[in-house]
Specification:
CATH architecture of the largest domain: 2-Layer Sandwich
CATH class of the largest domain: Alpha Beta
CATH superfamily of the largest domain: Lrp/AsnC effector binding domain/regulation of amino acid metabolism (RAM) domain
Shape: elongated
Radius of gyration: 21 Å
Distance between the termini: 33 Å
CATH topology of the largest domain: Alpha-Beta Plaits
Helix content: 40-55%
Order of helices and strands: HHHEHEEHEH
Structural class: alpha+beta
């Protein structure tokens, strides 16, 4: 991957449906070269897919929460992961270090709906404890980050000052 691939990714990150002809104008390459580069990134797994970003409240999901989950024993992990992956309101799950084993991001219709989901989570085999955090407002919500050489240099300059 070179600087142009990163430029292409930045454009696609903003709009996954951007036309290759528009991308080619921004990166100063032919349309066929842009298409070829995108295909290579898809085949190598750098680009895993394309999706639609949905405004959750517009779809009726007015509540967003983060639930931390601790398991009694690692033997429960496979069943827990399988269950979590099947639940449509659990939109992210992170395995982590620290006091809790997993962090779940959940969107749902209401506090009552959250209570049902929370009860469902606690009913899963091997759940030792949970801790729930209500999201009051989303300040930043991006799905990927690209390495930013300029940011790294700027941060280093700030540290020197």
């Amino acid at each position: 991957m070179d600087k142009i691939d990163y430029q292409i990714l930045e454009i696609l990150k903003k709009n996954g449906r951007e036309r290759a002809s528009e991308i080619s104008k921004e990166v100063h390459l032919t349309v066929s070269t842009v298409i070829e580069r995108i295909k290579k990134m898809e085949q190598s797994g750098v680009i895993k897919g394309y999706t639609v970003l949905i405004d959750e409240p517009c779809m009726g999901n007015d509540v967003t929460v983060i639930i931390e989950v601790s398991l009694e024993h690692p033997k429960y992990e496979d069943a827990f992961i399988e269950s979590i992956n099947e639940h449509p309101n659990i939109i992210a799950c992170y395995y982590q270090t620290g006091e809790f084993d997993y962090t779940l991001k959940i969107t749902c219709r209401s506090s009552q709906h959250l209570e049902e989901i929370h009860r469902w989570i606690k009913d899963q085999p091997g759940i030792r404890k949970t801790r729930t955090h209500y999201v009051l407002r989303t300040v930043k919500n991006i799905y990927t980050s690209l390495p930013k050489e300029d940011w790294d240099k700027k941060s280093a300059r700030k540290k020197k000052d």
